[in-house]
Amino acid sequence: xxEILKKYEPIIGLEVHVQLSTASKAYSSDGTTYGAMPNxxxxxxxxxxxxxxxxxxxxxxxxAVRLGIACQCNIRERNEYARKNYFYADMPKGYQITQDxxxxxxxxxxxxxxxxxxxxxxxxxxxxxxxxxxxxIHDIDPFHTLIDLNRAGVPLLEIVTEPExxxxxxxxxxxxxxxxLVRYLDISDGNMEEGSLRCDVNVSIRPRGQKEFGTKVEVxxxxxxxxxxxxxxxxxxxxxxxxxxxxxxxxxxMTFDAGxxxxxxxxxxEDAHDYRYFPEPDLQPVLxxxxxxxxxxxxxxxxxxxxxxxxxxxxxxxxxxxxLTESKDIALYFEDIIAHSNNQKAAANWLMxxxxxxxxxxxxxxxxxxxAAQTIANLISLVEKGTVSNTAANGELFKALLEKPNEDPExxxxxxxxxxxxxxxxxxxxxxxxxxxxxxxxxxxxxxxKGLLGLFMGEVxxxxxxxxxxKMASKLVQQELDK
Length: 483
Ligand code: ADP
Ligand code: MG
Prior knowledge:
The chain is α+β, with helices and mostly antiparallel strands. It has 16 helices and 17 strands.
């Protein structure tokens, strides 16, 4: 790869389709439940029967506006719809209702890290609203293709980037950011396996120093972020070899074969005029006014970048802050702990330590975690007050709470005999007892052998069976010795 990069500069742009998590379809009242019985979510509008009329789902507009605000895009006031005409067996209308010349969002960016970890903004060309097609199923019946039209008409946002990626790693990082963003914004579940995020990549290379872009190739049908990255890196190498052997790269659409790791020809690229776009006559333009945008903005859920900045400001390390904001569920749980505790560092330690390792062990997500965030805040305060030791809280007490999550942590600690001895009269007795056992050592200490303090402390801890609050015990030992 280094050889290639010395001579050529890769140029990459991404087109991502995000399936929106709305209860009904983009232009009809059909349901959108994933995995429903085939062809049960298909009314006459989804099927495009003559005489039916589509209606705009307001939720689609709102979700598009949310994403546009989060990416600092310009949001268009007058949104027109267009028909994109083509024939697919699983698209009964024979056209897709989409936006052509008036995408709802333009400009804006997604902040990512480049392959070296430095910050980089990827510019967005446009985000537009459209609808999905149905699904052709080739692997159930050996003689026929089966068609499930449940997905036909499910709303999508297409996010098109500027050609600003330099390599597969940047594309991978971008997709991770987009997935995080759509999940935080509650606009999509972002699951690539279920087809909620789909990515087409456009790749070209040009000799270093050349102004014009090289001919691009589009790769479709990758089912994981890693495969997107692999397809890009493969395509860079393939194009390099084409040019180096004196040939020209041909503009075409390829597909990625995950088995061989190679891109293979799908079809020669169609041009925009093949689709014969024209204005959708059945839908009025939708006006998105500033007060609407302001309302959506005021109701926007917290963004990962905002929470990251907040946690850094609270004094958490970059590493902790990044880990905490990686998934929305974890971040919200953390928010919930720190709403009940001022010790953010301890909250991060609990979440990234005992809680995370339990989740990993059980292979469950935080939404299935039995202990409430407020209870964790409670544990933090018990440790802070010296009621239980940090070790006992993270160990025995945590384990007991997993079994009885609704119990009060302090009473549970009591019943488990985990309360630290900090009642000073009880502790004083133990200290006196400990010192009484070593009259010679006490004399040695008094004549200057201060190192013996550890011995006395050890004895006190032993007598208390580990429950003495070490700070308090040490204070009392000193006080007794200095008498
Ligand atoms: P098309 O008309 O083929 O759909 P667009 O100009 O709409 O092409 O761009 C589609 C995607 O391809 C965008 O993400 C864009 O950034 C990217 N792109 C455009 N030109 C190039 C190029 N020469 N090399 C790589 N990517 C490109
Ligand atoms: Mg295009």
